[in-house]
């Protein structure tokens, strides 16, 4: 199981890195756009274009900051721990899906299986935190039976 957890961890790292790269590229493009904007006879157009580029840069800086927070959260997760209770870094197998408690990265596909990368602070992550194999919980009217935790 630790091999699966390590692969899922690496998929999460790749997800965050791609978000960071996309944000950095968008920031560079917005800055280039602002630099290319030249003063025209309609002075307001120049200022509006620069302001729009600045807003785009700020939006992408915020996304980059969020991606950095996700990377920090990932760096705090171990792939070798084998706790009997669900915690950050745990792989939780239920009757309604496989969950990797790490960051909110959506559905990860690995070896033909679907795994949901969820944050321990998400509603389902909070329900899972501290439970053991054989435990059950209900979320949104759906019953989850914990089959195994690694």
Describe the structure in your own words.
With 150 residues, this protein is of the alpha+beta class. The chain folds into 2 domains: 2-75; 91-149, no CATH class. The chain has helices at residues 2-36, 43-75, 123-128; strands spanning 91-94, 97-101, 106-110, 113-118, 136-139, 142-149. It has a 6-stranded mixed beta sheet with strand order 3-4-2-1-6-5. Strand 1 (91-94) and strand 2 form a beta hairpin. The longest helix has 35 residues, at 2-36. The radius of gyration is 21 Å and the shape is elongated. Residues 36-50 have a biased composition (Basic and acidic residues). It comes from Mucilaginibacter glaciei.
Which labels suit this protein?
about 150 residues; about 50% helix
Secondary-structure map:
Blueprint: H1 2-36, H2 43-75, E1 91-94, E2 97-101, E3 106-110, E4 113-118, H3 123-128, E5 136-139, E6 142-149
């Amino acid at each position: 199981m630790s091999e699966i957890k390590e692969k899922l961890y690496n998929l999460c790292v790749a997800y965050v890195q791609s978000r960071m790269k996309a944000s950095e590229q968008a920031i560079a493009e917005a800055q280039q756009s602002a630099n290319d904007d030249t003063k025209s006879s309609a002075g307001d157009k120049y200022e509006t274009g620069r302001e729009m580029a600045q807003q785009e840069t700020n939006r992408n800086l915020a996304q980059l900051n969020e991606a950095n927070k996700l990377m920090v959260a990932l760096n705090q997760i171990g792939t070798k721990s084998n706790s009997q209770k669900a915690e950050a870094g745990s792989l939780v197998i239920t009757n309604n899906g496989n969950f990797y408690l790490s960051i909110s990265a959506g559905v990860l596909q690995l070896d033909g299986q679907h795994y949901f990368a969820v944050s321990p602070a998400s509603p389902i992550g909070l329900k899972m935190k501290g439970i053991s194999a054989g435990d059950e919980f209900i979320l949104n009217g759906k019953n989850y039976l914990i089959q195994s935790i690694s």
